[in-house]
Specification:
199 residues; mainly alpha; two-stranded parallel sheet; globular
Length: 199
């Protein structure tokens, strides 16, 4: 099957949720979907805000898509035209997925399918490409950096766009402070010495 062949060429290394340290999951949720534990698949406030802002995200705020919606996009809607109907379908499927699948499974599927740039699909491939590490060995800071790539991997590419990458990392650290994963002092210390990874 040629489809399978294509997928195998991509750098994908599936993991179970138990193989991913809590701080790595926490960093991704903080940056990409901090309301994940509470929402039912769709973050209505973010969706409305995004619609009003015409889907432009220049600020450090989170995107409108929940992690569940991103799983739906990656697994079910690939190749569909991004029209008005697309967003509605994505939201509907996300709500259905949340009703039928536990949160932990959704996170696991997200961690294994999300794209981090540089041909890295999934968190293990990203850890490998950017840090030459296993996911189990990632620090909170490294996990945060990887989480920051998800929204726009080519824009925030540390190799080709080090300045944008640093600016995005500053936003990421703010999210980690906002969600209590890091203190403001830790953030300042981190920024003073931080260098982007060289994949």
């Amino acid at each position: 099957d040629s489809q399978l062949g294509v997928f195998e060429l991509e750098n994908s290394q599936p993991l179970t949720i138990d193989q991913v340290p809590d701080h790595v999951v926490a960093a991704l949720l903080a940056v990409e979907d901090s309301g994940f534990e509470k929402h039912k698949g769709v973050n209505l406030r973010a969706l409305v805000r995004a619609t009003l802002a015409n889907f432009q995200y220049s600020s450090g705020r989170q995107g409108a898509s929940t992690i569940t919606q991103q799983v739906v996009k990656n697994e079910y809607l690939a190749g569909l035209p991004r029209d008005g109907r697309y967003k509605i379908l994505q939201a509907r499927y996300a709500v259905m997925l949340e009703k039928t699948v536990p949160k932990a499974t959704i996170v696991e599927r997200y961690l294994n399918t999300v794209f981090f740039g540089n041909n890295a699909y999934g968190i293990q491939a990203a850890a490998d490409v950017y840090y030459q590490k296993k996911v189990a060995d990632l620090t909170l800071i490294e996990a945060g950096f990887l989480a920051g790539l998800v929204r726009a991997p080519s824009t925030f590419d540390p190799i080709r766009r080090p300045e944008q990458s640093r600016r995005r990392f500053v936003q990421v650290l703010e999210r980690l402070v906002d969600t209590g994963l890091m203190t403001a002092v830790d953030r300042d210390t981190t920024l003073a010495t931080w260098q982007p990874p060289e994949s």
